[in-house]
Amino acid sequence: MKIVIFDMDGTLLDSKKDITISINHVREAHHNLAPLSEEYVVRAINMEVRNLSQLFYETEIYHQKDRELFESHYEVQCVKNVYLYEGVEEMLKSLVASDVKISVATNAPTQFALRMLEHLRVENLFNVIIGADKVNNSKPSPEMLNHILNYYEYDEKNHKAWMVGDNSKDILSADSAGIDSIFATWGFSTQGDAKIVVKKPPEVLDIVL
Hints:
The termini are close together. Strands 5-4-1-6-7-8 form a 6-stranded parallel beta sheet, sandwiched between helices. A two-stranded antiparallel ribbon has the order 2-3. The chain has helices at about 15-30, 40-45, 50-55, 65-75, 90-95, 110-120, 145-150, 170-175, 200-209; strands spanning about 1-5, 15, 85, 100-105, 130, 160-165, 180-185, 195-200. By secondary structure, it is an alpha/beta fold. It is globular. It has 2 domains: about 1-15 and about 85-209, Rossmann fold; about 15-75.
């Protein structure tokens, strides 16, 4: 059995416009702050160590009222501008057609992942879609990956598994879970520090198949 676990934002799909719009909505409504650029937001999300409430809302802690407003706004916003990166849908369908098991491990809440992937008509291709709300520790912890590997009854002697992501947290989670990692540079990160780096989705097929 072959298993490929995908990160979502910046790997499968481009969500930066909608994330930025919802963050800016909270900034204006609760903090009277000027809007942030998409580039700034992506850079902040991709930092290995960061305090997002400080970076986005200039508060030391993520206040409940900010979280609730962001989530209620993003619930509607998250499907307005989102799109799959070129070649991603074909890659996913090719993997499934070749009997490769595919899943999603995202640091986004599961409800948004399901909504976006369903909207983009690829949700049914995945066996497991898990977000940070379903585990105690999000990536770079291997907890989400281990949950998925356990679902498949993964056996490292007889099976092969990969994590595909656009972020150091994806690579670190794969290392901790004891599986190979593939760094994708077509999304939020144009360069990555990993043994295997791919520039286009079909290259994943070359590696896995």
